[in-house]
Amino acid sequence: MEDSYLSEEDKNDPVKERYELALARIGEIQEESICPEKVQAYFRDMAAFVLLVNKAWHMVESGTLRRMTLEELQDLNRELYADILPDKYGRSYGNPDYAADRLGEPIGQMLAFLCAELRGMIPAAFEQNRLGMVIRMELLLEIYQAFVCAAQESGEGDGAGAESGAERAEPRPETIRQILYWYVSDYYEPESMERTAQLLCPDRDFAVRIVMESDLTDLRYLYYYGEYVTDNELRTARHLNELSEDEIKLMADTYTEGYRIGFEVGNKDISVKKTVNIRYALGFERMIRRSVDNFDRMGLKPTIYRAGANIFQGRTVDKNGFFGANPNKQFDYDHREDQALVLDKLMTERKLECMRGAYERYKAEAAVFGGPAVVEIFGEKPFVPETKKTACRLSDRQQKLSVEYAAKAGAMQNEYIPGEERSFTIIAFPIPDIGARYEEIFDDIVRINTLDYKLYQGIQQKLIDALDMGMTVRVKGCGANRTDMRIQLHALHDPAKETNFENCVADVNIPVGEVFTSPVLRGTGGILHVTRVFLNGLEYKDLWMEFKDGMVADYGCANFSEEEENRKYIRDNVLFHHDTLPIGEFAVGTNTTAYVAARRYGIEDKMPILIAEKTGPHFAVGDTCYSHAENVRVYNPDGKEIIAKDNEVSLLRDTDVNKAYFQCHTDITIPYDELGEISVLTEAGEQIFIIQNGQFVLDGCGELNKAFGDLR
Fold first, then answer.
1. What single DSSP character describes residue 522?
2. Pick from 410, 530, 412: which is nearest to 481 by CA?
3. What count of Cα atoms within 13 Å lies in the side-chain half-sphere of residue 37?
4. CB-based contact 144:25 (threshold 8 Å)
5. 479: Cβ–Cβ under 8 A, 6 or more apart, which residues?
6. Are the beta carbons of 239 and 442 closer than 8 angstroms?
7. Exposure check for the chain: N or C terminus, fewer CB within 10 A?
């Protein structure tokens, strides 16, 4: 075995010693036949994977990885992720259906979780995080030993591996569940500490060094992260390499200026901040490098962490951090609720305790953290998940615990990183999967991201002036769209100095193009309906929601044949296990240029919500846009103060902060071609029309209709 001999220095490193001992024992599993053959085959498979990741560890440690050819790196990358790729997933132990079929329930379900958790070793190997490797290797061995002991106690552990007439004994499911439980409980503290450090501390610079020190014209650098790499990432990097310095500067400047202006518009002091968290997809390094330089001139150092890939960080289809290609979205969807195996009240308290300890440890760093700057991607093939009964699912009690945890964790984060002191920005670009006209679409999106914000600012002010004359807003669909919503607005006590709507141009949400408000919940209601929409990476067909006094009262969609599956799909992925959510935002999107571009290229179904929300009116369920920053006074360019920052739920922060926030905000947009009417009803009974039959009809807004001419 490579490096099995420990030096005196290594012998004094308990983690290194644990690593070597665990590795040696795992190496023996492949030669053993102690357990029933189906079970033994599973553990041989897991052992082989661990040995493969260990090989990658040594390639990184020795510098061999940097000397490999592109073809060699691609072979290694494919080998690391082969087991869960769609063409192999039907016979992967990471697939809960296959694991349950081969190994039985509920054992198969738990061993599918173990398979998924072992994949967390890939990031650990590339980041040279030895503890991250060790704890997963030891988890494998502890569970394997439970099966070995059960087989030996059955009197059949003779090593022959042959099946007898009687079924061999297995450990009780509760024994395996307890091993998983204490694994999560024991290691939540160091994992939470490291994740918090990655968010707040610039010295955790694994990704920063790749961005800033690599030769970005040598695309081998994409394989140094340990993320899955496909033609998308390679073509994206090649395309950015083909752009001129001026074009890269324009992209980076739009992104970083949006971040800076977000502080300015939000009346927050960026000068006291020292760090910015950069999130991006592989392939955009040339833009990110320029952005790091821009942020440096603002006095901000970057922190960059990897998107979650284990039970401690969570596994979701929608990635948050730096990330490569998703090897298999169904795999992530199948394991999104793996915490169901361990979640109880004590575990919830343990997680909060560890989170508190991490924030206390990095309290000074939290105080100077500015917030995230996000580069999103779009254009991936639409994903419609398969719901599997063998996948872990949170019970009703666990869903309540999950909601309680999210509320308390959000409040704790706000305690250390106050919302009224931080900001963010988000920008989006297409990837090659979007189609044959990728380069053309990319250039058009750059143009959309850099539209003349002064032009939009003026037009949007006319919209706001009309909207501020109203008590309620009416939104109605047309054709197949059944939307019929009435939105109650806050009363303006001094209309000369106050406004309900924010004039949103290119700052935190790039591109330009919306005016938004936080409605009064009482009196807000009706039906919201869209024929097709993508939210957080998932497709919804005929999504509808009914609202009463601003709260979700009922909902459904047409994704699945069974109504209950449709309701669970929405509850899990839009309501995030809450029984109900308020309308946190109502907005009128004005970016007709983006709408027309999407129609012209036939990519409406691939547009990210960041752009899609600007292409029609939208409603957000969850927190308001001013979550945790309601007390900061914010003004529009015309000098009027925005007073509609709260609703009846967010105001509960003064009495019970855990009931005021939901840690989610999901925008649902009605496209112009499904829109029959947006109108304002004044106190005097006058009806002012903003949009009719998908066209802006308010005086001074005709410029927005010009883009529609390109569709004729």
1. E
2. 530
3. 5
4. no
5. 673, 674
6. yes
7. C
For the cut 60, the answer to whether the pLDDT of residue 5 exceeds it is: no
DSSP state for residue 709 in the 8-state scheme:
G
Q: Is the peptide bond before 106 cis (omega within 30 degrees of 0)?
A: yes
**Sheet (strand 665-669) strand order:** 502-504, 514-517, 583-589, 617-622, 665-669
For 403, the token pair is 């909601």
Whole-number Cα distances in Å, 76 to 68, 221, 327, 332: 10, 14, 14, 22
Mean pLDDT of the chain: 93
DSSP string, 434-474: G-TTHHHHHHHHHHHHT--HHHHHHHHHHHHHHHTTEEEEE
The Cα 97–Cα 77 span in angstroms is: 25
C-beta atoms surrounding 122 within 10 Å: 24
- 233 phi and psi angles, rounded to 5 deg: -70, -40
Contact between residue 674 and residue 599 where contact means Cβ atoms under 8 Å apart: no
By the 10 Å C-beta count (0-12 exposed, 13-18 middle, 19+ buried), 686 is classed as: exposed
User: DSSP 3-state assignment of 696?
Assistant: strand
DSSP letters of 611-622? HHTTSSEEEEEE
For the chain, percent of residues with pLDDT exceeding 90? 83
pLDDT at 79 over 70: yes
Please list the residues that pair with 509 across neighbouring strands. 426
Residue 260, CA distances (Å) to 82, 208, 269, 287, 294 in order: 42, 21, 10, 17, 10
* Main-chain dihedrals φ then ψ at residue 554, nearest 5 degrees: -160, 160
Question: Other C-beta atoms within 10 Å of 105: how many?
Answer: 14
The span from the CA of 547 to the CA of 554, in Å, is 7
pLDDT, tens digit, 9 for 90 and up, residues 275-327:
999 999 999 999 999 999 999 999 999 999 999 989 999 888 888 999 999 99
The DSSP output letter for 499 is E
Q: Which residues contact 649 (CB under 8 A, 6 or more apart)?
A: 521, 582, 659, 660
* Integer CA distances (angstroms), 157 to 33, 162, 521, in order: 9, 10, 66
DSSP 319-339: --SEE---S-HHHHHHTTTGG
d(CA 449, CA 505): 11
> Which two three-digit tokens encode residue 531?
């024929």
Give this prediction's pTM.
Answer: 0.90
Domain locations along the chain? 8-159, 198-204+222-425, 451-711
Give the residue from 350, 361, 378 showing the smallest Cα distance to 438: 378
φ, ψ for residue 473, nearest 5 deg: -120, 135
Q: Are 61 and 175 in contact (CB under 8 A)?
A: no
Label residue 10 by pLDDT band (50, 70, 90).
low
Contact criterion met (CB below 8 Å) for 571 and 579: no
Joined together, the tokens standing for residue 467 give 């909207």
Three-state DSSP at 395 gives coil
d(CA 251, CA 624) in angstroms, rounded, equals 29
What confidence tier does 153 reach under pLDDT thresholds 50, 70, 90?
Answer: confident
Distance CA 321, CA 376 (A): 10
Q: If you search the block for the tokens 């050819």, which residue do you land on? A: 69
Look at strands 641-642 and 498-499 and give their pairing. parallel
